[in-house]
Amino acid sequence: MFPIKHTRREILQSTVAAAGLTVPTVLQMQAEATLPISAKRCIVVYCWGGISHYESWDPKPDALSEIRGEFTTIETNVPGIRFSEHLPLMSRHADKMAIVRSLYHKQGGHQQGMYHSITGHVPPPGLKALNRTNSPSLAALMGRFQDPDSGTPNAIRVPYNMYDNGTLMAGEYAGWLGADYDPILMRTPTGKPFRGVSRYTSRELDLKLNLNKERLLQRQTLQSQLERVVGQTAEYDRIDRFRQMAADMLLGSDVRDAYNLENEDPRIRAMYGDHIGGQSMLLARRLTEAGVPVVQVCAGAGDLAGGSGENWDTHRDNFKKLKERLLPIFDRSVSALFTDLEMRGLLEETLVVFLTDFGRTPKINNNAGRDHYPAVYSMAFAGGGIRGGQLYGSSDSNGARPLDDPCTPGDFHATALTAMGIDPHKELKDQFDRPFQICNGTVLPLF
Amino acid sequence: MRILVFVLIASVCCTATYGQNAEIRAAIKQAGGKIEQIQGGLEVSYHLGKRNVSDRDLSYVAALEGVVLLNLKKTNVSSQGLVHLAEMHTLKKLHLELTKVDDRGLQHLKGLKNLQYLNLFGTKVSDDGIDALARLKGLTHLYVWQTAISEAGIATLRARLPATKIVAGIDLTAIVLPDPDAPVERPSTGLKFIATQDLSDAPKSGNGENIEVVFENKRSHKIRLVWVGYDGKLKVYGELAPGGTRTQNSYENNTWLITDMEDNPLGYFICGNRRAVAVIP
To answer: Which residues in chain B have their CB less than 8 angstroms from residue A268's CB?
Structure first.
């Protein structure tokens, strides 16, 4: 486990005092900030494995070479914000993004770090996937507060489950919200796969497979797929709801039309790139446009497979992997998503949230890689009423510790929920009537 | 007494307004519209419901008090129908994208002084609509991608609405489409064919990077392509005619067994970490 030398309270005290503010003043400022609510849908982009903050949104060009790494930096379309040189397309969209450079937590392992980042809650001991006492993911929680039309799931995930060496990860599900709100996993129908290991099970929905078969057959197949999902959680009473949703989706809903990427203008498809990374972003746009309130995209191979393959867990050949494969796919697909959402007039109403497990170590290891580093890392927002072209917080000159405005995944979640018009401190009850506060973070002033 | 009469009249009026509003709401919902309370007023949307929005439906929306957001995306609303929106002075956001609305429709929007967001993406609006648009001085966002407005028209709009963010989108014709007939490059590396008649010689598959293998059958007979699983179980992936090729998704360290059509082993390949050709001699 990575040693953390400071507590959140200590950091808050030091930075608040340094800024000449007292805690009550800060609280008062937070209370006075009336937030314009405009997001109606959300796309969560998850960089599975832990994207390096150095090689993406928080480069350190003035650090020593053993920390700085091989890449240089480039200007963005916002003066004062620089990105890694391998995000040239995204650098033209910095005016749409709010980048948080001072996130931190204490979880050095993938499962724990991912759970903290995706649920906003500290992982409990003995964490296991599909446990109904787990906290819900951001996508599941946001979906819980929506009221989509019949045949439209509250939340969808594409294209893979997250695994670590064959172990299914906890955190992507609805947890104590119950099976009704588990985001439904869908297979992206086109695009070259990420290299490495991505595990498909029989449980993803693949509407395309069913498109040309008899309606009855489609219905049965899809129902059985869904029943297997539900059966696994032993909540058989939920089957009816899924059965109805499956039938509605198959009987020609907007969701099914959205799923068929062949319906999209081929030039738009080309803009996203002929890769599952890009086609999944396109699918997310189409699904949210068709009324699915929340779509989560796994931007990388599904199984970390010991740091091999195309995921963000770059213990080996960090620079080669990022430069040749991961960053170009990410850069192109995210930039296409921003362009597409903006020209359709959807960006203002669509919150895009970037999450990841943690950052990477300042020191480059003997395998030209960077290891896990939760002491400081970056995540980002775009659209959805969040003011673009801003940085929130900073890391120190070595990218090793938060310097200004340290914040936690909980704070990031509170901000995302608020953007979607959801009170982050609302209390909900689980199926046993036990109360849970949905988020314990503080809203960041990004609106 | 006067006060009592006033209160009585006021309450009757309120009830009447409420009753009227309730009727209007019911009519809107019946036509597939969704009404939601949002910050600052009401949102009415038809974009995910029934797409047949008649002029009469729009007259109901116009009669509803406090509508700040109206979403008519992808509906069959016409320019003529927009006449009902002319007096909706509370309106701040209006979605008309992917409708049949053209320049004539814009004439009805000229008086909407509070309008901040107007989405005309995918409509037939042209340079002839610029004058009407330029009167909407309160606009902060205007979307005109895939309309008939020319580049010069966009420049005029930008000059006349300097405080408005005008999104004209990208030129899709500049995007180069991948050539579906482009020849697939033959891999430069080849896998070694290890001839054997003993099935137990072929090892279980191991994990690794995702790669492609291009199998080429140089034999004069048909063969079967069999994947040796991670647990050693065999799975037939297909058959390859004499002279045939097949591009197969695989992983580094995977074992591919080749058998004849009677399932007698002929030999096997073990994948490396890059795209490779596997010639069956």
So the answer is: 172
